[in-house]
Design brief:
about 475 residues, alpha+beta, Maltose phosphorylase, domain 3, four-stranded mixed sheet, 13 helices
Length: about 475
């Protein structure tokens, strides 16, 4: 089986020198089509899958983040999670890794690394927000609901919280539970993880939204209860009010005070109340904490292990963790701060790309160079690096927020220059639009061509305007 059509992503342009911010995007969309393994001689999987850093494998973590990018393609493979939905383990959970040769997990059934982090529901929901295919949503929901039930029955600890395993949760990226550069299994295994807990809460929350939309109100209520229960336990036990951050807990319920971006899952999931989220986001803009020359570091610069003795960064800039941070800004209603950091990140990525000709998974927070990841791989030209750049550019820098399930497209203009977007998929159609340069006085103009009726929301700071549009060409003042 071969991809019948190459992926066609939106064409973007920024008037002026800031167009350099789009060079990583253009490189990524030119390369990402070759990052899929298709069923056939190479792969025994039932559906196309994203290649992992390990040859001959696909990782659920990569698939979840890659789905955010593939959904923007007009043709080709837009559902990078399909192989994992089709390959549900016999025990009824989503596996963390699939092997192309066998079409199944390469790990022993007793290996805890076999279970994926619960991110596929989020990926499916974001796909639905851009392309509201209710049939696909219903199919994915039944599979992911079985996965959720298995997790509640088998992974929840006595304190009602969760831990995970290093590989599926990318634990090395945040450098927690480490001693001498290696994860201590006894410490990690006995602890409750802030990211694992928040991901499980988010999984229940997203599935409840799916259930409600599909008319399964009783199941939605049960999932809501699960979400609230996990959130309440986290807010009581994992929040440190003295320094305004969420922390992992050791086996005795005491804080493991290492400040990392893993805690941001509490904001994305909605677990963190608004006042706590505001305190956390203030640290993201603090250069003594997470905002470095190349934002953002996965480990706060105030931590003693920020760099090793040889100068190698322990806290690195990881594209998917940056996405997590910027989604927190959007969730808090302050997208402009995340967009500013995204612009700085893409400018640094563009410089390294110009020097080396490659995109990387991890970067040094303080220098224009890639950073090694724990297995020694640089992550050069990794599928998840391509995918993250695509989502960073469209979703964060340009502030395009689809809500096609309610037929609304939201745009948060950030750049002062004229911006053009052609061939943007939305719902069952496509859009072309152009945002004029920011004038010294007066309003910006948005020209939009749509082929279906829709609602356009333009957001700037706390203010937003809504325009009801019929098919055709429209000029609106923002």
């Amino acid at each position: 089986m071969q991809n019948p059509k190459p992926p066609v992503f939106p064409v973007l342009a920024i008037e002026g020198e800031r167009d350099v911010l789009l060079t990583p995007y253009r490189h990524a969309i030119a390369q990402i089509g070759g990052t899929m393994a298709w069923p056939g001689d190479e792969s025994a999987l039932k559906a196309p899958a994203v290649r992992a850093l390990r040859q001959g494998h696909s990782e659920a973590w990569d698939a979840a983040f890659s789905a955010l990018a593939w959904r923007w393609a007009l043709h080709g493979q837009q559902t990078a999670t399909d192989a994992f939905l089709a390959g549900l383990d016999a025990a009824r959970f989503v596996p963390a890794t699939l092997e192309f040769r066998t079409g199944a997990s390469a790990l022993d059934a007793r290996d805890p690394q076999r279970v994926a982090a619960p991110l596929l529901a989020l990926a499916e929901w974001e796909l639905f927000r851009l392309r509201p295919d209710k049939t696909r949503l219903a199919h994915a929901f039944e599979i992911l609901l079985a996965d959720q039930h298995w997790r509640q029955a088998n992974l929840r600890r006595r304190n009602g919280l969760f831990s995970g395993t290093a590989g599926p949760y990318q634990l090395n990226a945040t450098s927690r539970f480490m001693l001498g550069g290696r994860i201590v299994p006894s410490l990690a295994g006995g602890s409750s993880w802030i990211d694992a807990c928040a991901m499980h809460a988010l999984n229940a929350k997203v599935l409840s939204e799916m259930a409600r939309l599909l008319g399964q109100k009783e199941i939605a209520g049960e999932l809501d209860w699960t979400y609230r229960d996990i959130a309440a336990r986290m807010n009581v036990t994992m929040w440190n009010d003295d320094d305004g951050w969420y922390y992992d807990l050791d086996e005795h319920g005491s804080f493991l005070p290492m400040r990392t971006l893993a805690a941001l899952w509490t904001i994305v999931s909605g677990v963190a109340p608004r006042n706590r989220a505001d305190r956390m986001l203030a640290r993201l803009a603090d250069p003594t904490q997470f905002e470095r020359a190349h934002p953002l570091s996965t480990l706060a610069a105030s931590e003693g292990d920020y760099r090793k003795r040889d100068g190698t960064p322990v806290g690195v800039v990881r594209a998917e963790f940056n996405l997590l941070a910027w989604e927190c800004y959007f969730a808090a209603g302050r997208p402009e701060k995340g967009q500013r950091q995204c612009e700085a990140h893409l400018r640094r990525v563009a410089k390294v790309l110009a020097d080396s000709g490659e995109l990387y998974l991890a970067y040094d927070p303080d220098r224009d160079m890639p950073a090694p990841i724990p297995d020694g791989n640089s992550g050069a030209e990794a599928p998840v690096a391509f995918a993250a750049v695509i989502q960073e550019t469209l979703g964060c820098l340009l502030g395009i927020r689809p809500h096609a399930q309610r037929n609304e497209l939201e745009i948060c203009p950030h750049l002062d220059e004229k911006v053009r977007v052609e061939g943007l998929p939305f719902g069952l159609g496509t859009l072309n639009f152009e945002v004029s340069a920011r004038p010294a006085t007066g309003r910006r103009t948005i020209e939009l061509m749509c082929d279906l009726p829709m609602r356009l929301r333009v957001r700037q700071g706390d203010q937003s305007q809504v325009h009801e549009l019929n098919p055709g060409l429209h000029t609106v003042q923002a």
